[in-house]
Amino acid sequence: MKRSKRSLRQVVLGRMFELLDQSYGIDMSRDQFVGTALSHHELEAILSFKSDPQLEELHGALARIDDGTYGVCIGCKKAMEAEILAAEPARRMCADCEQEFNKPAMHADHSWMHQ
Questions:
Q1: d(CA 91, CA 73)
Q2: Could you name the CATH architecture of 5-114?
Q3: Fewer CB atoms < 10 Å away: N or C end of the chain?
Q4: What's the pLDDT band for 109 if we cut at 50, 70, 90?
Q5: Domain boundaries along the sequence of the chain
Q6: Could you tell me if residue 9 is left (phi over 0), alpha (psi between -120 and 50 degrees) or otherwise beta?
Q7: pLDDT, tens digit, for every residue of 32-74?
Q8: Can you give the pLDDT at residue 52?
Q9: Cβ neighbourhood burial of 3 (10 Å; 0-12, 13-18, 19+)
């Protein structure tokens, strides 16, 4: 990924804000949530008691940004396109690997996922 960690975090936090605001309401503006440097503890407090798989996936995306694995396909280990990640910031698989993974079981060999 060529984008800075900060800009990647802003994309992920923007999607997280949208989900939080739609589902729970949030007591801060989008600019405050996305633009300020929320600490890990502040984010954990905001997410506490909110059981939502999409929020959990976005939270995982933030961890991948921090550890340098964000935007790398878990199947082929290649960088994913920035446009795809902008539309789906929590995505973990490129389109080719996802298509292969979603083939009917009798036609697919998913052993590559466990390498």
A1: 8
A2: Up-down Bundle (1.20)
A3: C
A4: low
A5: 5-114
A6: alpha
A7: 888 877 788 888 888 888 888 899 999 999 999 999 999 999 9
A8: 86
A9: middle
CA separation for the pair 107, 55 (Å, rounded): 32
Token pair, residue 4, equals: 């800075």
pTM, entire model: 0.74
Question: Which of the pair, 89 or 26, is modelled with greater confidence?
Answer: 89
How far CA 31 is from CA of 17, 34, 46, 98, in Å, comes to 10, 5, 16, 33
Secondary structure of the chain in the HEC alphabet?
CCCCHHHHHHHHHHHHHHHHHHHCCCCCCHHHHHHCCCCHHHHHHHHCCCCCHHHHHHHHHHHHHHHCCCCECCCCCCECCHHHHHHCCCCCCCHHHHHHHCCCHHHCCHHHHHC
Q: How far apart (Å, rounded) are the C-alpha atoms in residues 110 and 108?
A: 6
